[in-house]
Amino acid sequence: DLLTPDHRCGRDAWKPSPWTGIVDVIAGDTVGFGIETTWDSVTHIGPGLAYLAKKPVGVELSQWDGDGDWVKIDYKGPITKKTTTVSMTTPPGQYLLRVEQIYPSLGNESQFYVNCAQINIIGPGGGTPTDFARFPGTYKVDEAALSLPVGEEHVVGNDVRWEHGFLPYVPPGPPVWTG
């Protein structure tokens, strides 16, 4: 649901998680997410996005619910890669890394696959993001980026595919910050 905290990191995943570890990431490194199911990949087409949110001063990362400013660090579409690169100029510190894959459909029936990881970015920093997102709040239920554009739908078996390969698609949220 775009209008609840579940849109931050997944269903009930926005709640603080003291039992989850924090992974060190060197600025400039590529990071990825795996899928632990009986399927080994995302089987539908749709845009993939990645965001970072730096934890507030004076709060333990494991106790923070992610309510804050998120900077978009990557966008991939139409075929989602499972990796993203953290900019060399990302300010060092502890962050939530949010990955999302959107399965756009006709009308307001799109599906969002969202997850977060706790990371500690190590590096020289020097960059200053300026455009931010908030979850919930950034995406609007009726915005064009969350629905299949008219004329794009193409049914293959039971699966809807994009007829023109995302050519007219503009992803939701702020622009990608590259450092």
Automatic annotation (TrEMBL):
Residues 4-147 form the Auxiliary Activity family 9 catalytic domain. GO terms for cellular component: extracellular region. Coiled coil: none annotated. GO terms for molecular function: metal ion binding; monooxygenase activity. Pfam families: AA9. The keyword Protease does not apply. Gene3D superfamilies: 2.70.50.70. The keyword Zinc does not apply. It is found in: Secreted. Its EC number is 1.14.99.56. It catalyses: [(1->4)-beta-D-glucosyl]n+m + reduced acceptor + O2 = 4-dehydro-beta-D-glucosyl-[(1->4)-beta-D-glucosyl]n-1 + [(1->4)-beta-D-glucosyl]m + acceptor + H2O. Keywords: Carbohydrate metabolism, Cellulose degradation, Copper, Disulfide bond, Metal-binding, Monooxygenase, Oxidoreductase, Polysaccharide degradation, Secreted, Signal. InterPro entries: AA9, AA9_LPMO. Its cofactor is Cu(2+). GO terms for biological process: cellulose catabolic process. Its main location: secreted. Belongs to the polysaccharide monooxygenase AA9 family. This is lytic cellulose monooxygenase (C4-dehydrogenating). It comes from Lentithecium fluviatile CBS 122367.
